[in-house]
Design a protein that fits this description.
This protein has 175 residues and is α+β, with helices and mostly antiparallel strands. The chain has two domains: 56 residues; 92 residues, no CATH class. It is built from four helices and five strands; from the N terminus they run ααββαβββα.
Length: 175
């Protein structure tokens, strides 16, 4: 059972409960029961809950996991056409490629404001320390994807090899 179909099933049960509560509230007004206004409040709450569950059943909640991607932190995102992530300085080129693809999938949203452009640009950067007391930001690569198509087959992925060479090299024999 997918999350969307589960939310749709919850929505159906919530709608049935909302209708039953509305009928009970109508009977309470008809017979002038003392708790009739509480039933109106409960009916309104159930109505809002039903609408929310219906909305969740429409939006896909699945996230794709890209094999080889490492954890990243989102450090700049104003819900526009640009975002910046930070990756660990020990990252390799295949891991960076997978991480940029992962970020492109994670940060897609049809509600982003385009502000004149139709591409989302996500830049990956790392913080390196060339000498004690000095920190330097190194932009390692970027990915550009469509703001309107969820499964964008035409993503433009650029890895900056000269910047990647500035990262400290990790010996693969060390554990």
């Amino acid at each position: 059972m997918t999350p969307n179909s589960a939310f749709l099933q919850y929505c159906q049960w919530s709608a049935i409960l909302t209708i039953a509560c509305a009928v009970l509230a109508g009977l309470a007004f008809l017979f002038k029961w003392g708790f009739r206004f509480r039933l109106v409040g409960a009916t309104g709450f159930l109505g809002v809950l039903t609408v929310g569950l219906f909305a969740l059943s429409l939006v896909p909640l699945t996230r794709t996991a890209v094999p080889g991607a490492v954890r990243y932190s989102l450090i700049y995102d104003a819900s526009g056409t640009e975002a910046v992530i930070v990756v660990p300085p020990e990252i390799t080129k295949p891991q960076l490629t997978a991480t940029l693809q992962q970020a492109a999938g994670d940060l897609f949203s049809p509600g982003r404001t385009s502000k004149g452009g139709n591409q989302l640009t996500i830049r990956a950067r790392a913080l390196v320390h060339p000498k004690p007391g000095v920190s330097e930001v190194v932009v390692l690569g970027q990915v550009q994807r469509s703001l309107s198509v969820r499964e964008d087959a035409n993503m433009n992925l650029d890895i900056f090899d000269d910047q990647l060479a500035q990262l400290p090299q990790v010996d693969s024999n060390e554990s």
